[in-house]
């Protein structure tokens, strides 16, 4: 089968046709991937972020069909259309019992999961345990969610990461309330999903910030009242408030987190949903934390319970309240994955899906 392999950290994606995968074991399924999104996290991982090593088949935003089932799996069948999630919950740990499946205590490290992939006889890792840049992958049965027949695979794949991460940052982590003012920093797929989530939650003044004009235009089309550059003062867009009730940072650099904090009103909420670097510390004085009475909230995977949120998001898409189509620039063959990565790095692409 085909797979896009990163042989060395910092190197390109090498699309090979000689990859193989093992059979699914107990509690696992094999999925024929039909579409995958190239998330910024995949690009970062290919450069060694979060300690990623090589060789590896990356990709964690994908959808396809079950082609094989391991022993002990119930409720799933060969031929089922499924979404792949990169945090397969155990359903038993302290966090899962509290519906915090996104931080399942028993989630294995990527190197401990794996689809048993080999390329030209050499073992390769499965990035984030999913490896959706391969035609077929093996994952825990708890890591798939069945999909209805009406949603295209390229839209469904977005529901594996970008959409629930952004939507959940607004709806679950920030808990945006009707009439609240909301600022979203960064208008990639996650930021635009956060913006749509805030709009659906009933946000009042809704402002977006991004350096790229195309993404600012997209933010306006998806409900932002203003779309500004990073050099603009976002509070100037507010009518009668000293700062925003909620600021969602989908970039997560120390500079953007400080900007988010400064843009929030006293008593406001700052949500950091971007995947930041471990070597990029953010400083706050003890006095400002006390005096400003703001909440600083980390949002991992949008605080999403995927079994709950995916059907809700599909319903919102069906009824026209959540726009998935506008967030897919194009669908191209896996062979063009390096072109997709280049476009996303330059900001000329939002989310080009790859057909696997």
From TrEMBL:
GO terms for molecular function: oxidoreductase activity; zinc ion binding. Keywords: Metal-binding, Oxidoreductase, Zinc. Residues 11-354 form the Enoyl reductase (ER) domain. SUPFAM superfamilies: GroES-like, NAD(P)-binding Rossmann-fold domains. Gene3D superfamilies: Medium-chain alcohol dehydrogenases, catalytic domain, NAD(P)-binding Rossmann-like Domain. Pfam families: ADH_N, ADH_zinc_N. It comes from the Bacteria. This is Alcohol dehydrogenase catalytic domain-containing protein. It comes from Gordonia polyisoprenivorans.
């Amino acid at each position: 089968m085909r797979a896009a392999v990163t042989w060395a950290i910092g190197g390109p994606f090498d699309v090979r046709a000689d990859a193989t995968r093992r059979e699914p074991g107990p509690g696992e399924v094999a999925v024929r991937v039909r579409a995958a999104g190239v998330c910024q996290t995949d690009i970062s991982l290919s450069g060694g972020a979060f300690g990623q090593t090589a060789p590896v088949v990356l990709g964690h935003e994908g959808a396809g069909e079950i082609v094989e089932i391991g022993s002990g799996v119930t409720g799933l069948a060969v031929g089922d259309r499924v979404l792949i999630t990169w945090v397969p919950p155990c359903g038993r740990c302290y966090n899962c019992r509290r519906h915090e499946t996104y931080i399942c205590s028993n989630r294995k490290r990527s190197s401990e999961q794996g689809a048993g992939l080999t390329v030209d006889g050499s073992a390769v890792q499965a990035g984030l345990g999913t490896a959706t840049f391969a035609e077929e992958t093996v994952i825990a049965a708890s890591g798939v969610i069945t999909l209805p027949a009406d949603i295209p695979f390229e839209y469904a794949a977005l529901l594996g990461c970008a959409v629930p991460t952004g939507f959940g940052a607004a709806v679950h982590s920030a808990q945006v309330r009707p009439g609240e003012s909301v600022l979203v920093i960064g208008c990639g797929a996650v930021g635009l999903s956060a913006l749509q989530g805030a709009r659906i939650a009933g946000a009042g003044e809704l402002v977006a910030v991004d350096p790229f004009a195309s993404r600012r235009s997209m933010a306006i089309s998806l409900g932002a009242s203003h779309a500004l550059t990073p050099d603009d003062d976002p509070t100037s867009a507010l009518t009668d408030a000293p700062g925003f009730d909620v600021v969602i940072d989908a970039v997560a650099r120390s500079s953007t987190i400080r900007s988010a904090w400064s843009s929030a009103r006293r008593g406001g909420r700052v949500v950091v949903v971007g995947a930041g670097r471990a070597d990029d510390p953010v400083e706050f004085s003890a006095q400002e934390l006390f005096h400003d009475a703001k909440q600083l909230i980390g949002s991992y995977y949008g605080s999403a319970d995927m079994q709950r949120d995916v059907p809700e998001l599909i319903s919102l898409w069906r009824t026209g309240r959540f726009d998935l189509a506008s967030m897919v620039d194009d669908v191209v063959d896996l062979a063009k994955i390096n072109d997709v990565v280049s476009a996303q790095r330059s900001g000329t692409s939002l989310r080009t899906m790859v057909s696997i």
